[in-house]
Every structure is written in C-alpha cells, then in structure tokens.
Design goal:
The complex is a heterodimer.
Chain A: H1 5-8, E1 26-31, H2 37-45, E2 62-68, E3 71-77, H3 89-100, E4 105-111, H4 115-128, E5 132-137, H5 139-144, E6 147-149, H6 151-158, E7 162-164, H7 173-185, H8 198-215, H9 221-230, H10 233-243, H11 251-266, H12 271-290, E8 294-296, H13 303-312, H14 318-361, H15 366-404, H16 407-420, H17 427-436, H18 438-444, H19 451-460, H20 470-481, H21 488-518, E9 529-531, H22 540-575, E10 577-578, E11 581-582, H23 583-597, H24 602-610, H25 618-628, H26 638-647, H27 652-663, H28 669-679, H29 682-709
Parallel strand pairs in A: 1-3, 1-4, 4-5, 5-7
Antiparallel strand pairs in A: 2-3, 6-8, 10-11
Helix pairs in contact in A: 4-12, 8-9, 8-11, 14-15, 14-21, 15-22, 15-25, 16-17, 17-18, 18-28, 19-21, 19-29, 20-21, 20-26, 20-27, 22-25, 23-24, 24-25, 27-29, 28-29
Chain B: E1 5-6, E2 15-21, H1 26-33, E3 41-47, E4 54-58, E5 61-65, H2 67-70, E6 73-77
Antiparallel strand pairs in B: 1-6, 2-3, 2-6, 3-4, 4-5
The chains are: A alpha/beta, B alpha+beta.
Amino acid sequence: MGLTAGSTGLNAVDREKPKEEPGGRAVALAGNPNVGKSTVFNALTGMNQHTGNWPGKTVAVARGRIQLEGESCQLVDLPGTYSLMAHSAEEEVARDFICFSGAGAVVVVCDATCLERGLGLALQTQEITPRMAVCINLMDEAAKKGIELDLALLEKRLGAPVTGASARQGRGLDALMDRVAGVLGDGGPEPEPVRYPPAVEKALDLLLPAVAPALKGKLSPRWVCLRLLEGDPVLMGTLEGFLGGDIRREAQVALALEQAGALLRREGFDRDTLEDAVAKALMQRAEEVCRGAVTCRDEGAAEHSRRLDRILTGKWTGIPVMLLLLAVVFWLTITGANYPSQLLTAAFAWIEGRLAEFFVWIQAPEWLSGALVEGVWRVLAWVVAVMLPPMAIFFPLFTLLEDFGYLPRVAFNLDHCFRRADACGKQALTMAMGFGCNAAGVAGCRIIDSPRERLIAILTNNFVPCNGRFPTLIAILTMFFTAGAVGVWASVAPALLLTAVILLGVAMTFWMSRLLSRTVLRGVPSSFTLELPPYRRPQIGKVLVRSVLDRTLFVLGRAAAVAAPAGLVIWIMANTRVGGETLLALCAAFLDPFARWLGMDGVILLAFILGFPANEIVVPIIIMAYLSAGSLAELESLAQLRELLKANGWTWLTAVCTLLFSLLHWPCSTTCLTIRKETGSAGWTAAAFLLPTAVGMTVCFLLTLTARLLGLG
Amino acid sequence: MNRSISLNTLQEGQSARVERIASRSAMRRRLQDIGLTSGTAVTCLGRSPFGDPAAFCIRGAVIALRDEDSRDVIVSPS
C-alpha cells in the first residue's frame, strides 16, 4: 500500500523526477518490477521504504544515502521497469535517470527465479553505461525452487560484476557494495556489445563515425545510434535538450542517418520490425548468458504456488475465498478492536474528568478549560480510542496478505469486471491501496499505463473507504444495526455488514468506471499485463513492527494533528454566540433543510464539511455539536453515544444515510491535493470531488424519499 | 510441425512456442518487454474465475494476459 509518511504526507503531492547528484556519486537501483529492489534499497540505506509482494509498488523515486569505501553516496531506487525502451512513464523516468543524470553507477537487480528477463534489462543498461553491476536477488527462493546459478560464469559472460543476494535475509549485500565501489572507481573493460542482425549492424557502422564525435563522450555512441535509427520522438526531444541541440541536424549525421535508413528499408526493416529485431537480439543474448549457468534441478518446485493459485484464483473458489478473506479480516478487526476501544474510551473519559478538576483547581477561566477539555481533548480522545484499535489490527492483517502475494490475485480475479467497465485490472491494486489511504491510492494509479484508465482509477478511488472512514462505518454499524444481536451473530453481523458496505463501494467503482468510460473518458481498454509473483511466507514479526510503527502510528499522528486544532475550532464555533445562537447551531440550521432531504441533519452535513481535512474527525464533530446543544452526557461507551444520537433525532434512516454518505462523498484535502498533482488539472480534481459527492447525495436522497413515501422514515 | 494457434486458445497445462506477434499496437512492445519474443516457450497455467484473463508462465514468471491481447500471439503447441 505504500502507506508511509512519504506517501501520504505532504510529500505525496511533491514528488519529482530524480535529481542529479553533484560529482556523479549517485548509484541507481534499476530492475524489473517486484524483484525486491525496495528490499535491497532498505537493507543498504537502513531506511524503511515500504515493500510488498506485488509489482509496481514503488511508484515514486526514493533516495537514500549509503557509505561506499568511507564516502557518502546517494542511492536512488528507480521504479521497476521491464525495459528501457520507454513504453511507459516509469520506464522513461528510469531511462532518463540512467542516461542523462550522470549516475555514477547502476545496479540492476534481477530475480534469480526468472533471470533471463532481468538480464534483458541489464544488457540494455550496459549499452548505455559500462558502470553497471548486477545483483541477483531472491537466491533463497531460487534455491527452494531447485534453481542453481553459476555466478562466476554469468559474470564472465556478461563482462560486469555479478553478485548473489537474499535481501530479505540481508545476505549478500556487503559483497554487492564492494563490487559497486569497484564499478564506481573505474568502469572496467568495455563489455562485449549485443550483436544485432547484419543489416542493423551495417546501419550502425554507417552511423557510428558521424555520431560519435557529436556526442563529445557524453553518451554511449552505439546506444545513441540505435535510438536514432528507431527515431522515438520523445527520446529525440530529451536528447536534444541534453546535448543542447538536435544532432540529426548536423550535416554528417543527417547524411549518415539518411544512408543507414535507406539501407534498412532495402533490407525490409521498418520501425516496428527494427524494434522487434532489437528486442529479440537482447533476449537471445540473455538466453546465451544463462545457458548452462542457470540450471533447474527440480521442475516441480513451483507447484506450491500453482496449487494455491488453483484455490485462490479458481473458477469456483476464487471469488468466494476473496469475499471470505475480506469478511474475516473485518471480523477480526471489529471483534478485536471492541474491547480495547471500550477500555480506551473509559480511560480517556476518566482522564477528562481529572483534567476538568485540575482546571477548576488552578482556577482557570471557564472558556480555557472548555476549549481545552471539551474541545481539544475530547476530539483527540475519540480519534485515538476509536481509530487506534481497528487500525492496529487491520493494517497488520492487510500487510500480511500483501506480503504473502495475494493482492495481484485480487486484480487477476477481478480484471474481468474492470474490462467490462473498459478499465484496467490493476485498478484493483490501487483500490486496495485506497483501503489504507486514498491519497496513496491515487498516487498508486501510476501503475496503470493508459492515461484514460489511470484517470478512471483516480476519479473512482474515493469509493473505497480509507482507514479514516472505517471507524466511522464500524461505529455506526455496531450502534444501530447489531446492538440487539446475541451470541455468535453479535460478533459476525458487523463484519458482514461492513463487508456489504465495502462491496457497495466496489460496485460503485465498477458502475462509475463504466459510466466514465461511456461518457467523458471514452475509449477502448488498453493492453494489460499483470505479473503474479510467487507466494512468499510473510515475515510476520517484521510486518507487525512495520505496520504498527510506519502505518498505524503515522496515520494516527496525522489524524491527531488535524483533530486537535479542529476540536478547538469546533468548540469555539459551539460557544460563540451571535444573536443568542451559537455559530455552530447557525451553520447547522442553515444546512439543515438541505441535509434533511438527504436523510441527515444540519449537524451531520456540517461535520462532513468540517471533516474535509481528515475524515477521522467527522464523528467527534457530530458528538461535540450535539453535546454543546445541552444534553451533557458523559460518553464512556458506544451505548451512551447511541443514546446521545437518538436523543438528537437519529433514526435507522439517519444512520444508513450517514453511513452511505461517509462512503460516498468528497475526498479529503490531502487526496484532493494528490489528485491535483497527479492529473495536473484543476478540472479533473473538481470532477474527482464532485463525482462521489453527486453519487452520495443522489443515493441518500433516493433512499430518504423512498423511506418517507413508504412511511418508514 | 504443429499447426499455429492463438495463445488465448491454449488449454490449461498446455505449452507452446511463440511464432510471432500479430498486433502492431503498444501491446507488441509490452509483450516483447516481458520476454515474449519469437521462439519463447509459454505454458498456460489457468484462467481467472470469470474465464478471462489467463495466467501464463513466461521465462519463469507468471503473467496474466487478457484474451483480446493474447489472441494476437501466434504460437505452435508442443
């Protein structure tokens, strides 16, 4: 889910392409998606970049510092790419960094269990820079699968340092650092270049003498010549900027390019077939490098993943198991959170009493104790008591599934539905990220290549409730719909209802994606490739520590940081009187007629509006508004909260509408900023704001109308 | 020599070698990037619950492809 300070804080809206390191002492980590680059990065830098078992998780470029032979050096974690031919935004970022930023060295991280493909990328990198080292990661998994690698032979054939590693266990990284330091020192001998078909080589021979002088040693001539023959316009633009002029305009180059082009055409090459030939030659070379150096003793070892897949993605079992897993996660979350939540609520209420007494004792003015105790403290207490326990259970559970490798299977299972909506199956992954934080989900949409499908995913991400909304949903469900339940049902019912609410959000995502595809974002679904990584045994201890420290406490901290000042503002609004009425009551009264049409009241709608900075504070605002209106109850349990809400006119209809509106309303401010950043358009940001809001209002309105017509509300 | 078929008609558990990629779209590049060049061995591992997409083993990795994309990959079953 990539839910860390960097991905959900303000940094989430300020990510840029990698910057140049003065002095060229930067080392870049490149590699195919999901080969454990981020794990290598963390192990080398001691940082905690989020890792997970699914491709495309690192959507941004992470930077850290490492020590190489006593000297500090920047390490750059590039997004995972299959090639450097720049067919997608990530590939362009990776290629541009390797080519044009003057990276001191590039480490290509490969997966030992599918080395050929990784070496394809290494060979492409080698064409650009000889300062390359290969790190073959996941050696432990390869050993389990019965795959043996002859690293010395690979190194000899590749003409570049090759080291093996198992980054999850921290093995092999010291050796890697030594080799990288060596590469950084001197590039070593020029490696043997990949040989292309004779016609292409002849064309290169024509072009090389003209191009080489024009580059002034800044770039590899052979690589530039190949790209000139392919003529990709985007790269030509970047090249022009880098070299300070279009080398194709130089007389000699233009002439040679003309001749080489004519030669290729005579031999039957066009741009497509040329790229085919290049791709094929690279893969063939990778096969040659691996031949005899990689041996698989045990063909049946991958059976374990296959067997699991037969259940988790099976025709009859895939979807039921997925729903069951979702329900079980919610059941564990709700049941497990129940008791600690009660305990915390009671504890905070007790502290509130002591705080109030303290303020009386120091003879503080009433407004001060009111603002601090009833304002700041109460909202903070709610946010912590109600959010902390479910988050501390939900996040680790979710991270375990993620670490295990289940998320890509969800995308695989659901892709058909997304295709029906003319959207991309990877949207399921961005939705999963949305469970953690919608801002992270929106940023994660970068894994979707087609701009049209990416926009659909961004606009609909908010239909998945984030952790800030979960507690609200859970609290309302438990208070109003399962309070009378007894026995096993009492603990199962809220989980089932929450699953139903989530499924409603998912259904909305499909419908709205489809609607967008048929209207403003019309188009055909683009090509789709999704890698299903092998299942891995989750690192339970690490998952627990990381998900509690990185996610839970961070998200809680952010919520608390918003909740405290919000509590103050609300208290001031509730205690500032204009013409005999409080400001809060005035605002609520103003919104009330409209809110009634949506099955809510002015206070609830006002709470949603004031909750724009963070969804977590919606319920505390509602509570404070009601409390300030007079009925000064002590709030020590959800049962008392229910009484308070009922005393303020809540019916089952109010609860349902609040629930639905919580699921279907505008994204929070951080998410809006992220959408602005990702789409670069105020228009699409507005659309992302209005779409869920319009849906929520329509749904609530229709429900209220129906209920009233039937005489139920 | 076996007759050529489309990759999407490969049965679960069946293997084949890639002959050529018929599409000229961006998909052609994508498929080549994941190592699906002519001569590559592929095995169909299974289909998703709704029948589409299907999972294929390509150079040691498991990759899901939609029917509409794998239709353009011409293979000869082995």
